[in-house]
Amino acid sequence: MLKAIHHEKNLTKGNRDDIGIITLWTRKEAITKHLKKETYGFVGQLYSKDEGISYLIRNCLANKTIRHLMLLGVDLYNSGDALLALIKNGIDENHNIIGISNAAIHKEIPKLAIDNFRNHIQIHDYRSLKEYEKLNAILSELKPLPTYGFSETFPEHKIEAIESFPTDPVGYKVINKTIGQAWLEILDIIMRFGIRKKTEYHNEMKEIINMMVVITDEDPENIKWESFFNFTKKDLDEYIPIILTDLNIKDVEYTYGTRLRKHFGKDQIEEIIDYLKKVPHTRRAVAVTWDVKKDLKNSKAPCLDLLQFLIQDNKLYLVVYFRSNDMFDAWPRNAFALRALQNMVSKKIGVNLGSLSIISCSAHIYDNCWELSKSVLKDNPSKKGLNLDSRGNLVINVKDNNIEVVHYSPSGEALGKYSGKTADEIIQKIVSLKSISLLSHALYLGAELQKAELALQNNIPYTQDKKLPLHP
User: Fold this and answer.
1) Which residue, 97, 151, 212, 387, shows the most beta carbons closer than 10 Å to its own?
2) Which own/partner pairs from 288-296 qualify as long-range (CB within 8 Å, at least 24 positions apart)?
3) Is the confidence at residue 211, as pLDDT, over 50?
């Protein structure tokens, strides 16, 4: 009888020990219902190109009676292609499957053992087969083959520390009340997810493409000072005028302030203030620092390139674009100075202060600041705490033999009602209507809806945010 070394609960066992059936992303139950147990040894799914194939190899080498592997089903992530490539090409010196990207076999399995697996396993590719009732006849025609040795097992796989975690290749959003707490989030994201690459300065950086940071409540006249900032209050006081005014600094080619106030022969900020007073609904209140004639090949071209002011609900919003942004050394000071500029413009126009959004196309930390960033993060755990969802709240009840969810706006106005018998049914409605925006809110609702479903199924009283009375 076959012995499942790993993920036994995910395997359906049969009675012919030399045949394994891999259903890839197709539910194995959709296939086993057509099979006779005497035609196979095990049926299992194969989702991933690395972990999944590694455990498949482990099981086959622990059960050397397995000689045939049949590939069936939908191959969503090319795990079937990866298995075929392994059999054909083997692995390289780093245990990567040759000819397939992002597919590494556990290094605890020796290359000699992997080659033994490759040389004794026959792969039968039936991924195009749709009529699964034909499988019994196909399987019965496979010639029985003898075992090829004694069972082998290997040490458990150890997860190695990695340089960067997988994430979306472009786009990361941070929302926080204050600049200091947002900066901690920024450092954590780039150190965790940033891609390591070279720079034009002969060093390296970790980079996130297109990071948007939204600061909602920082008071520029009474800033929230943090002890972990890598600059002093005096440094900040000296930096802010570099953006607010046309201050010239000796031996410095330009400042953002001079580009905004003088470089193009006009004061863009004052013109924007005058125009917003006359046309508060305009979308043309844009200031630029990029000089098309000189900056493409200018090694000292400005990193801050564009500012746009928008008035909405009597609040002045500022959206800023950086082509390149040093998020460790420069970002906090940039943010404080831009917030001060936004505040100055809002006062001259006579409107309230809205949020500040800073879009950094290349948001990066240089290699000489990696250890400093880790130190700041280690000594200063994020204090973000509970964030209320800007899209509202959802109140869950179990009533009339249904799970009922009422969606309320942040101000308490009822926006809609969802009902169903299962957590998944409600979740699908919430997702389709985009009723939430925060990951923490999604995780919370998933747990609460599962509790509500359990209460409904077992006729248990349900109260949101309280434990189910499972043991009266």
Assistant:
1) 97
2) 288/264, 289/256, 289/259, 289/260, 289/263, 290/323, 291/259, 291/263, 291/264
3) yes
* Cα–Cα distance, 340 to 359 (Å, whole number): 17
Q: How are beta strands 68-71 and 122-125 bridged, if at all?
A: parallel
Contact 67, 54 (CB under 8 A): no
Please tell me the chain's helix, strand, coil percentages from 3-state DSSP, rounded to the nearest 5: 35, 20, 45
Q: What is the pLDDT of residues 369-402, one digit of tens each?
A: 999 999 999 999 876 555 678 898 999 999 999 9
Q: How far apart are CA 124 and CA 325, in angstroms?
A: 52
Bridge partners, residue 345, by sequence = none
Which residues make Cβ contacts (< 8 Å) with residue 242, sequence separation at least 6? 249, 255, 256, 257, 337
Q: Give the span between the Cα atoms of 423 and 430, in whole angstroms.
A: 11
Lowest mean pLDDT among 204-213, 342-351, 425-434: 425-434
Q: How many helices (H) and strands (E) does the chain have?
A: 13, 15
pLDDT digits (tens, 9 = 90+) for 235-271: 999 999 999 998 877 767 789 999 999 999 999 999 9
Question: How far apart, in whole angstroms, are the C-alpha atoms of residue 372 and residue 120?
Answer: 52
Q: CA quadruple 41, 13, 50, 63: dihedral positive or negative?
A: negative
pLDDT at 1: 45
Q: Tell me which H or E stretch contains 424.
A: helix 423-432
Angle, helices 423-432 vs 439-458, to 10°: value is: 150
Domain boundaries, the chain: 8-140, 170-379, 393-458
Cα–Cα distance, 232 to 240 (Å, whole number):
13
Cα–Cα distances in angstroms (integers) from residue 138 to residues 15, 35, 124, 143, in the given order: 16, 11, 10, 11
Q: What is the DSSP letter of 124?
A: E
158's tokens? 């150890």
pLDDT digits (tens, 9 = 90+) for 335-354: 999 999 999 999 999 999 99
Q: How confident is the model at residue 165 (pLDDT cuts 50, 70, 90)?
A: confident
pLDDT at 160 over 80: no
Distance between CA atoms of residues 183 and 179, nearest Å: 6
> Looking at the domain 170-379, which fold is it?
Thymidylate Synthase; Chain A (3.30.572)
- Tell me: pLDDT of 97 over 90: yes
The residues that are catalytic are 303
The arithmetic mean of pLDDT across residues 208-233, rounded, is 96
Question: Is pLDDT above 70 for 188?
Answer: yes
Q: Does the structural domain 8-140 have CATH classification 3.30.310?
A: no
Q: Please tell me the distance from the alpha carbon of residue 266 to that of residue 344, in angstroms, as a whole number.
A: 18
